[in-house]
Amino acid sequence: MYGKAFAPEYQGALTTLSVNSSLTDVLAVGTERLRAAERAGQHGEAARSGLAVAEAHRRLGRIGEADRAWKASYRAARAAGDTASMAWALWSGGTLARQRGAFALARRLLELAADLGERGGDIVARGYSLAGLAETGRIQGDYEAVGRLHEQLLAEARRRGEARHTVWALEGIAQMHRNTGAYDTAYAMFEEAAGIAARAEDRRGHAWALRGLADVVSVRDGDTERALALLSEAETTCRAMNLSSALAYNHKMRGNVLYRAGRYTEARDLYEQALGEFRAMSEPRGEALARLGLAKSLARLGRDRTETAAELVGLARVLERIGLRHAREMVARAQEELGLRAEVVR
Predict the structure, then answer these.
(1) What is the CA radius of gyration of the chain?
(2) Residues contacting 198, CB < 8 A, separation 6+
(3) How far, CA to CA in Å, does 140 sit from each of 101, 102, 120, 232, 327?
(4) How far is it, in rounded angstroms, from Cα 133 to Cα 311?
(5) Residue 119 to residues 48, 206, 314, Cα–Cα distance (Å)
(6) With contact defined as beta carbons under 8 Å apart, do 283 and 99 qualify?
(7) Whether the Cβ atoms of residue 37 and residue 45 lie closer than 8 Å to each other
(8) Cα(55)–Cα(322) distance, rounded to whole angstroms?
(9) How many CB atoms are closer than 10 A to CB 336?
(10) Is 75 exposed, middle or buried (0-12, 13-18, 19+ CB in 10 A)?
(11) Using CA atoms, how far apart are residues 252 and 194, in angstroms rounded to an integer?
(12) Measuring CA to CA, how many Å separate 129 from each of 105, 194, 233, 251, 300?
C-alpha cells in the first residue's frame, strides 16, 4: 500500500509544498525563505531552502542559477554542520551534472552524496543518491551494471511504501526493457507506474509514465492516435507544473511517434521545437536525440544524402564524447535505416 507522494527535497519551512507545486511557485517561496534565513544567519534553514531553489531552477532549465544555488546550499549546510543537508545539496549537484551530460562529475557527486546520506542517517538522501547513480548508468546505456541496483532500489521503495521512488524505479527498469525490445514487460511496468503515480497524486511521475506508455504503444502496436493522446495528457501536466525538461522530452517523443507513422513534415516540426527547448536549457542528451530525429526526418523529406551522412557522423562523435552508448547505437541504426555507410568514429 502506497501513501501520498511527497517531495523530500522540499525541506525546513518548505515541507508544506506539494510534490505537484508549480516550479515557479516553489522558486518564489524558496527564494523568499532563503533570503530570510540568510538575513537571520540560520545556515541550516538556508541550506534547506536553497535546495528547493536549486531544484526549481534545474527543472526549469536554468542551469547557471541551479549550479550556483546547489553550491550555496552545500556551503550553508557545511557551516551548520548538517551532514544530511550536505548530502542533499550534493545530490542536487549530481543530478544537475547528469542533466548537463557531465556523467563523470555526476557519478562523483552522487557517490559523495550517498556516503554523506548514510553517515548523516538520512536514508532518503542515500536512496535518492543511489537512484541518481543508477539513472546515470542507465542513461549511458550501461544496463548490466545498473540493472541490479534499479531492482534493489525498487524493492526498498516498495517495502517502505514510498510511491514516488517506486514509480521512478519502475519507469527506469521499464525503459531498459523497452530499449532491449521487451515491449510487453516495458508496457506492464509503465502501466503499473502510471497507476501508482495517479493514486499517490504524483503528477510528474504520472506524466513520465504516460510518455513511456505512448512510446511502447507507438513502436509495438503502431497505434499512433492513442500514443498522441497519451502524450497530450502528459503535456497538460508538464505545462501546469512548468516542467521544462519533461515537456521538451514529450515533444521529442511526439516527433518519434509521428516519424514512425510516416508523417515526416509534422515530425520535423516537433523535433525542431524540442531541439530549441533542449538548447535553451543546455541539455546535451536531449539535444542530441532531437538532432537525430530531425536528421532522419529531413532525410525522408529529400535532404541531400551527403549532408545527412555528415550530420550523422558528427552526431555519432558527439554521443561518443558524451558517453551515451545507447544513443550512439541509435545513430548506427539510423545510418542503416537510411542506407548510409556507417563510418568509424575517431
Answers:
(1) 20
(2) 206
(3) 10, 11, 30, 28, 8
(4) 31
(5) 18, 33, 44
(6) yes
(7) yes
(8) 23
(9) 11
(10) middle
(11) 20
(12) 13, 23, 30, 28, 42
| Predicted confidence (pLDDT) per residue in 79-128, tens digit | 999 999 999 999 999 999 999 989 999 999 999 999 999 999 999 999 99
User: What SS3 state is found at 342?
Assistant: coil
Cell for 63? 542551469
Cα dihedral across residues 148, 150, 151, 152: positive or negative:
positive
- Helices (runs of H) and strands (runs of E) counted in the chain: 16, 0
CA distance 94 to 116: 13
Q: Which grid cell is 196?
A: 501508482
Helix H or strand E encompassing 66:
helix 63-80
Mean pLDDT, rounded, of the chain: 93
What is the DSSP annotation of 11-56?
-GGGTTS-TT--HHHHHHHHHHHHHHHHHHT-HHHHHHHHHHHHHH
Enumerate residues 6+ apart whose C-beta is below 8 A from 264: 258, 297, 300, 301
Question: Coil, helix or strand for 146?
Answer: helix
Helix (H, G, I), strand (E, B) or coil at 231: helix
Least Cα distance to 48 among 68, 26, 74 occurs for: 74
Question: pLDDT tens, 200-222?
Answer: 999 999 999 999 999 999 999 99
For the chain, list residues with pLDDT below 70.
1, 341-346
Q: Locate cell 501513501: which residue?
A: 3
Cβ neighbours for 112, distance < 8 A, ≥ 6 positions apart: 90
Tell the residue number behind the cell numbers 497505434, with chain if given.
223
Confidence at residue 1, expressed as pLDDT on a 0 to 100 scale: 63
Cα–Cα nearest to 3, from 186, 157, 108: 157
At position 11, the amino acid (one-letter code) is Q
Instruction: Give the three cell numbers for residue 3.
Output: 501513501
What is the C-alpha to C-alpha distance for residues 35 and 15, in angstroms, rounded to an integer?
17
From the list 172, 163, 150, the residue with the least C-alpha distance to 202 is 163
The grid coordinates of residue 135 equal 539513472
Is the Cβ–Cβ distance between 322 and 284 less than 8 Å?
yes
